[in-house]
Q: What sequence folds into this?
C-alpha cells in the first residue's frame, strides 16, 4: 500500500468585515450597479465584531480553539450563543483581526502596491510583532508607509482601491495597469489577501509541526484565485510567493486549481510526489477569497440575521514520507470522478465514495467520518442552499442503502454517526473536506478514529468551459508501518531500496540450499 | 434563477412556443417555487430577462408523477433514485404544482 504521512496542519481565519463590505462580490457589484442602495446602507448593521466572530463556535472549531466534540455539543443557534472566553489562538491557528491582516498584506507586497497610512502602519507593526508566528525579518517587510493625502490622491486620481479600518481609509491598493484588468487594483488586492492568508497558514504549520522554514522542499497552493496579466491570465505562482515570505528558501512550488475540488486534488498530487520520492516533503496550502465575503449577505439582511461571511479561510498541511508515526493518506483508495461518470449527484457520490471503498473491500460503515463540503449551515440555510454537509451525508447514507450496505431504517443513525457538522466559511475551496484533516489526524493519533474520508467537489460550470461535475476523495488512516519510500530514507530516484536483515537471511539460505542441491 | 438560464429559457420559448416544457430538479421547495414562477409568471426578483415576462410555460418538478411516468425506469434508478431518498419528492412536486396551477398554460 502506498501511503504518505500527515505531519502537521494549520487552520487560520482572517476577520475582515471591512474588506467584505467594500470588496465582497455581492456588496461590490451592488455598489457598482446601484450606488449606495438600501441593502448596502443596511448591511453594516448586521456585521459581527471581532469578539463576536472569535466567539462564534464554528470559527473556534476551525482554528482548534475548541475540540470537535465540544463543537458538536455547542448550544445552537450559534449566532445566539457566542462562546465566552473565546481566544484568538487555537491549537491549529488563529483568527487574525483586520488591522493586522492589512499589515500582513502589506508585508506580502513586494511591488509597492499596498500603501498604509503611517500611524496605522506603526500600530499594526507593533501588534504583529506580538504574534507568536511572526519574526523580525517578516515584520520588517512592512514598508510602503505614506501620508494619508498621498493615499487619497492614489485613490481619487489613479484608480487605487481604498483599504478601510474603523470606517476610515487607512491605506490603499494601487492600480497595476491602465488597461489590463488582470492588474487592476481590485484583482491585486484579492491576490495579495490570498497570498497573505497562505503565508499565515504556512507560518502556523511550521510552528505546529516543529519544522524549520528551510526544511520545506515543495509547496502546492490550491486556492481559487488567479494571478497573472492579460497575456497569462492565471499564470501563478502563489506557492513560491508564499514560501518566499515565510523564509522557505529551499522550497520550490506550483499551483493547482480545480474550484472547490482543488485542495483534495492538490493533496493527492503532493502526496504522490512525496510517495514517489520526488519531494522530501510537501506543503499543500491556500489562502482565502475576498470576493466570497458577504456573498449571501443579501439573504441574511433580508431575514434580519447576522451577516456571518466575514472571515477569509486559510489552511496548510505538511505531507512527509510515511515513517509509521503519523496518520497517512492512502494512495491506493482514491475517489476519482471521470469525464464519463455523469453529473447526477448519484453518479458523483458513487465515483467519490462507493468505488474507492469497494475497490479495497471496504464497506460504508468502515469509515468513521465522511467530510465533504463543510460549509457552516447558519450561513447557507437562510440563503436557500440548505445544510450542505448534512445533505452530503444523507446522500452517502442513501447510496449505502442502494448498494445494500444499509437498511433504509438505519439511515438516520448512519447520518448521525458518520456525518460532520459544518464549521467552515463559504470560501469555496476551504470547506471542501480539508478542514476536517486536523480533527481526523488528532483522533487517529488518539486511537478514537480509524478511517476518515475527505471529499472535495468542484463546480466546473462556473468557468463556462464545461458542464462536467468534478470531485476527488482520499482516505486517512493510521500508518500501517513505515513505507518503502520512508525505509529508503525518502529515496530519490536511482537510490537503491533498503534491504532488511530478514531479506538477506532468506537470500543466503536460498543460495546455500542451491549449492547443497548441486553437491548431492 | 440566474440570468443566463432565464435568457436560455426565454430564447427556447420564443423558438418552440407551446411545445416547450420546463422540468426542474431543484432540491428545495422554496427555490423550486421561485424557479417555477420565473418561467410561468416572470422573474419575481425583477432582476433578469424574464422580469415582467409571463411566458406561461408548463412547469413540473422531475419528481412529479407525470414526469416520472415518462422516464425510463433503468435511467431513473441509475440517476435519480438516490436523491429520491435524500429529498422530499412529494413536497417538491406539490410546490411546483401550486405555481403551475396559478400561472401555466398548456399543462400536460
A:
Amino acid at each position: 500500500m502506498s501511503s504518505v504521512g500527515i505531519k502537521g496542519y494549520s487552520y487560520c481565519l482572517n476577520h475582515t468585515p471591512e474588506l467584505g463590505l467594500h470588496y465582497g462580490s455581492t456588496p461590490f457589484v451592488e455598489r457598482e450597479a446601484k450606488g449606495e442602495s438600501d441593502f448596502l446602507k443596511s448591511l453594516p448593521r448586521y456585521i459581527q465584531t471581532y469578539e463576536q466572530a472569535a466567539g462564534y463556535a464554528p470559527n473556534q472549531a476551525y482554528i482548534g480553539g475548541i475540540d470537535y466534540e465540544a463543537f458538536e455539543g455547542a448550544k445552537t443557534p450559534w449566532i445566539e450563543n457566542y462562546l465566552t472566553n473565546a481566544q484568538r489562538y487555537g491549537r491549529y491557528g488563529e483568527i487574525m483581526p483586520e488591522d493586522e491582516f492589512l499589515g500582513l498584506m502589506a508585508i506580502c507586497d513586494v511591488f509597492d502596491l499596498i500603501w498604509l497610512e503611517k500611524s496605522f502602519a506603526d500600530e499594526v507593526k507593533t501588534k504583529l510583532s506580538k504574534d507568536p508566528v511572526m519574526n523580525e525579518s517578516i515584520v520588517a517587510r512592512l514598508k510602503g508607509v505614506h501620508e494619508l493625502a498621498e493615499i487619497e490622491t492614489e485613490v481619487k486620481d489613479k484608480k487605487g482601491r481604498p483599504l478601510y479600518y474603523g470606517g476610515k481609509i487607512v491605506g490603499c491598493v494601487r492600480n497595476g495597469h491602465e488597461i489590463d484588468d488582470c492588474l487592476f487594483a481590485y484583482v491585486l488586492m484579492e491576490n495579495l489577501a490570498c497570498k497573505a492568508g497562505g503565508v499565515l497558514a504556512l507560518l502556523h504549520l511550521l510552528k505546529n509541526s516543529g519544522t524549520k522554514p528551510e526544511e520545506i522542499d515543495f509547496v502546492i497552493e490550491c486556492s481559487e484565485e488567479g494571478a497573472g496579466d492579460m497575456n497569462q491570465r492565471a499564470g501563478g505562482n502563489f506557492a513560491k510567493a508564499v514560501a518566499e515570505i515565510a523564509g522557505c528558501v529551499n522550497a520550490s512550488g506550483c499551483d493547482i486549481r480545480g474550484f472547490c475540488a482543488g485542495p483534495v486534488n492538490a493533496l493527492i498530487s503532493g502526496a504522490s510526489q512525496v510517495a514517489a520520492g520526488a519531494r522530501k516533503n510537501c506543503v499543500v496550502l491556500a489562502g482565502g477569497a475576498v470576493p466570497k465575503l458577504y456573498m449571501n449577505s443579501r439573504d441574511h439582511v433580508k431575514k434580519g440575521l447576522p451577516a456571518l461571511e466575514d472571515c477569509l479561510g486559510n489552511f496548510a498541511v505538511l505531507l512527509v514520507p510515511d515513517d509509521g508515526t503519523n496518520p497517512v493518506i492512502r494512495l491506493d483508495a482514491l475517489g476519482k470522478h471521470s469525464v464519463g461518470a455523469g453529473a447526477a449527484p448519484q453518479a458523483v457520490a458513487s465515483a467519490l465514495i462507493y468505488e474507492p471503498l469497494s475497490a479495497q473491500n471496504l464497506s460504508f460503515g468502515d469509515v468513521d467520518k465522511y467530510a465533504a463540503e463543510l460549509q457552516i449551515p447558519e450561513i447557507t440555510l437562510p440563503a436557500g442552499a440548505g445544510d450542505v454537509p448534512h445533505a452530503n451525508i444523507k446522500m452517502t447514507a442513501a447510496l449505502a442503502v442502494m448498494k445494500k450496505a444499509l437498511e433504509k431504517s438505519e439511515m438516520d443513525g448512519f447520518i448521525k454517526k458518520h456525518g460532520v457538522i459544518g464549521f467552515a466559511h463559504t470560501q469555496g475551496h476551504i470547506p471542501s473536506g480539508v478542514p476536517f484533516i486536523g480533527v481526523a489526524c488528532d483522533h487517529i493519533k488518539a486511537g478514537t478514529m480509524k478511517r476518515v474520508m475527505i471529499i472535495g467537489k468542484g463546480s466546473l460550470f462556473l468557468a463556462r468551459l464545461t458542464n462536467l461535475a468534478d470531485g476527488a476523495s482520499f482516505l486517512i488512516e493510521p500508518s500501517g508501518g513505515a513505507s518503502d519510500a520512508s525505509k529508503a530514507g525518502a529515496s530519490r530516484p536511482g537510490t537503491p531500496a533498503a534491504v532488511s536483515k530478514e531479506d538477506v537471511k532468506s537470500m543466503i539460505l536460498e543460495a546455500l540450499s542451491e549449492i547443497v542441491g548441486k553437491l548431492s | 434563477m440566474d440570468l443566463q438560464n432565464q435568457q436560455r429559457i426565454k430564447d427556447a420559448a420564443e423558438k418552440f412556443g407551446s411545445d416547450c416544457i420546463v422540468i426542474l430538479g431543484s432540491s428545495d421547495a422554496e427555490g423550486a417555487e421561485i424557479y417555477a414562477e420565473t418561467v410561468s409568471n416572470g422573474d419575481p426578483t425583477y432582476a433578469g430577462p424574464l422580469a415582467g415576462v409571463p411566458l406561461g410555460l408548463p412547469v413540473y418538478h422531475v419528481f412529479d408523477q407525470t414526469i416520472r411516468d415518462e422516464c425510463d425506469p433503468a435511467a431513473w434508478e441509475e440517476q435519480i433514485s438516490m436523491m429520491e431518498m435524500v429529498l422530499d419528492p412529494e413536497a417538491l412536486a406539490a410546490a411546483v404544482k401550486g405555481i403551475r396551477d396559478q400561472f401555466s398554460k398548456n399543462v400536460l
Q: What stands out?
A: The CA atoms of residues 133 and 203 of chain A lie 6 Å apart. The longest helix of chain A spans residues 185-209. The mean pLDDT of chain A is 94. Chain A has two domains: 16-208+225-247+289-306, 328-487.
